Amino acid sequence: MVRRAKRGTGKAIARRGLMLVLSSPSGAGKTTLSRMLLTVERSIELSISVTTRPRRPGEVSGRHYHFIDRKRFDQLVRDDELLEYAEVFGNFYGTPRKPVERALKQGRDVLFDIDWQGTQQMRERARDDLVSVFLLPPSVGELARRLHTRAQDEKKVIRARMAKAADEMSHWAEYDYVVINRDLDRAFSEVRAILAAERLKRERQTGLTAFVRGLQAKL
Ligand code: 5GP
């Protein structure tokens, strides 16, 4: 059911969008949570990264990633077209700058599925817009189980991911928020609560001055 705003509540206050980074060791449920968020939250969009990694079966160029070669990647770096970039598992990944800047200006939020290296760069370059959330698995056993049920990757790749998980996890303290994914629905509502509170930050609500002036004028 679509609920209409009550008469007199007026238009939403203009705001600047925020950058929501969700990082975790692979297997902690990040992809599932991101998907849920994108389905339910209308004013958030996913940043589509560029990568030099080969496309996996089922992945669609332009939807999961923009798959590009190393030469093109290096060109994007030289042209300062990437907000951040990093090497992960021997491949290069980066965040195209322009779609993000456009969305933020329009008051739309952007969700990023990037690793700790990328988050560090974002923090240096766009601190005020960044909200970072680190997702932890409830236990190592659960992490291993989730990695093994992913049929797409070879055993060798899974082993490398387990090793990387330890490295990734050591960066938890650099994030604004930490969510433990014991229960998917609970973790989801926690991430939504973070988003709701961060959207209400005074400095993000760029239309507040005009709104308050309007209120005062009628007093
Ligand atoms: P995958 O190859 O499994 O899709 O992603 C591997 C890792 O690369 C994940 O931890 C993911 O978060 C990270 N990643 C994906 N895109 C980017 C990006 O644009 N920048 C950075 N720094 N990491 C990324």
Describe the structure.
The two termini are 36 Å apart. This protein is 42% helix and 18% strand. Strand 5 (82-88) and strand 6 (91-96) form a beta hairpin. Mean pLDDT is 90; it is low at 1-8. The longest helix is centred in the C-terminal third of the chain and has 16 residues, at 184-199. The strands form two sheets. The chain has a five-stranded parallel beta sheet with strand order 2-7-1-8-9, with helices on both faces. Strands 4-3-6-5 form a four-stranded mixed beta sheet. It has a single domain, classed as Rossmann fold (3-Layer(aba) Sandwich). It is α/β, with parallel strands linked by helices and 219 residues long. The chain has eight helices and nine strands. The radius of gyration is 19 Å and the shape is globular. It has helices spanning 30-40, 70-78, 97-105, 116-126, 140-149, 155-169, 184-199, 208-217; strands at 19-23, 44-46, 50-51, 66-67, 82-88, 91-96, 109-112, 130-136, 177-180. Bound molecules: guanosine-5'-monophosphate. Residues 26, 49, 53, 84, 86, 88, 93-95, 113-115, 117-118 line the site of guanosine-5'-monophosphate.
Question: What layout of secondary structure does this protein have?
Answer:
Blueprint: E1 19-23, H1 30-40, E2 44-46, E3 50-51, E4 66-67, H2 70-78, E5 82-88, E6 91-96, H3 97-105, E7 109-112, H4 116-126, E8 130-136, H5 140-149, H6 155-169, E9 177-180, H7 184-199, H8 208-217
Helix pairs in contact: 5-6
